[in-house]
Amino acid sequence: MENQIVNDNFWSEYARMYNKFTPSFQKKLLENISQYGFGTVGDFGCGVGKLHKHLANQNNSKLIHAIDSNKQMLDLASKNKPQNIDTIYSQLELNDFNSNQILPKYDSIYLINVLYANKNPIEILKQITPKLNQNGNLIIVDMKRKTNLEQLFQVLDDEYTGDKDLENYYHSNQILSQNSTPHAYSINELESIISLMGNFQTLEKNETHFLNNANCLIVKKN
Predict the structure, then answer these.
(1) Taking residues 40-61, what's their average pLDDT?
(2) What is the value of pTM for the model shown?
(3) What 8-state DSSP symbol labels residue 50?
(4) Which of 21, 114, 121, 218 has the smallest set of CB atoms within 10 Å of its CB?
(5) Is 75 left (phi over 0), alpha (psi -120 to 50) or beta?
(6) For position 28, which CATH number holds?
(7) DSSP secondary structure letter of residue 69
């Protein structure tokens, strides 16, 4: 990102708070999108691995490859690892897929809150879509250009009343929101960009997640 405050140290501190707070609207999203994961799953920008227990509950995935550029995120993800599914953790910059030959092909790929947090999201999509097997699912969740943090944090405040980290967490999300605007897309723009990268069929197109603050686009590679 252009603003250097969003650096590796920022993500390391954010990881601790992100791991701590899992509001009901986030659980609902993860439960919904986990149904599209199957086979070998690539979770790019996996964060602290919140998705993984939901994938394990679906019992359709045989392996999760969890990838993130931040070590603290990966350390927390490994501690959150579900017992009934194999998971591999890799520290890798999210714009460096082409130079890394160890990456396999995937039956399902997740990009949850990744595109808006990177300054070249189209390049990331260009590098990731060839890693998806034919008939594989690509699941993209990304924050909208304008997010209502007050609305989101009212729910957090209700569900985590009095928690001392809420104010810092809110401030961190303000920084992310301010930095994300140039790199966020509408759901129609996302669908158009994906269509330029191959033959994809839209399975779900949803703008209501995260209390109407996130886009969710799920496509199948034909």
Answers:
(1) 96
(2) 0.94
(3) T
(4) 21
(5) alpha
(6) 3.40.50.150
(7) S
